[in-house]
Design brief:
4-stranded antiparallel beta sheet; alpha+beta; 243 residues; Barwin-like endoglucanases; elongated; single chain; 25% strand
Length: 243
């Protein structure tokens, strides 16, 4: 009898959790809904979505069976913690699935079908959603930068080493300082997930503070554009010559 009651209680709890997970309320901006993350097939490119917008694999958009069209949501890859903001502009017939554009899915490492969580964002995230497009483009550019082949003459490598700013025009972004590693971690976690791997934290010479740097080795113009994109998060950030 006790086992039967316990089993019944467990089923009731599971039903309640499932019911809540499917009750997508646009007013609930704190609850994370478990979903399966997938991405669109190319055959949908150029077709109109449920919102009337034309589907584009290069936009940060997604389809969901119930979330209100036009809503911005944060999708987190449960396997690696990477996040992306997408706008719901279409309907997906499958419950518990968030069907993203290829670009959005790739940004957080989704291949095939993987577990994700979805959090509905309150109004006011359109600007962050739009800025994100440039930031992801910047990261893609960083990864595509050619490296110096060991077969090249030593003089080329030496000239770059002696004066990195002149031949290559390489600059980084000094985000600011923090008192502890914990504080530095908390601050840098506010960056888009795609930029986390470029953050370095080291001791600031002549001080007990820690220096946070975004080591992206880009031109001054591009780094300054990134600085302006991040001014709401790091208002004191400044462009510095790469070491």
């Amino acid at each position: 009898m006790v086992i039967r009651r316990l089993t019944t209680t467990i089923w009731i709890l599971l039903f309640a959790i499932t019911l809540h997970a499917q009750n997508y309320s646009n007013d609930d901006t704190t609850y994370e809904y478990p979903n399966k993350g997938t991405f669109y097939h190319d055959r949908f490119v150029g077709r109109k979505t449920a919102s009337g917008e034309v589907f584009d694999q290069n936009k940060f958009t997604a389809a969901h069976w119930k979330i209100k069209l036009g809503t911005y949501i944060m999708v987190t890859n449960s396997n690696n913690g990477r996040q992306v903001i997408v706008k719901v502009n279409d309907r997906c017939p499958k419950r518990g699935v968030i069907d993203m554009s290829h670009r959005a899915a790739t940004a957080i490492g989704i291949r095939g079908c993987q577990p994700v969580t979805v959090r509905i964002l309150p109004p006011g995230h359109e600007g962050q959603w739009r800025r994100q497009e440039y930031l992801f483009d910047s990261v893609k550019t960083v990864r595509q930068q050619p490296t110096i082949s060991p077969k090249q003459p030593a003089s080329i490598s030496q000239s770059i080493a002696k004066s990195p700013a002149k031949p290559m025009g390489r600059y980084n972004l000094l985000l600011g300082t923090a008192a502890t590693h914990g504080e530095a971690f908390t601050l840098t976690q506010r960056l888009p997930a795609e930029l986390h791997e470029y953050v370095t934290v080291d001791s600031l010479e002549g001080s007990n503070m820690l220096r946070m740097t975004l080591e992206i080795h880009q031109s001054r113009q591009r780094v300054d554009q990134i600085r302006r994109s991040l001014k709401d998060i790091f208002p004191q950030a400044r462009v510095v010559v790469a070491d």
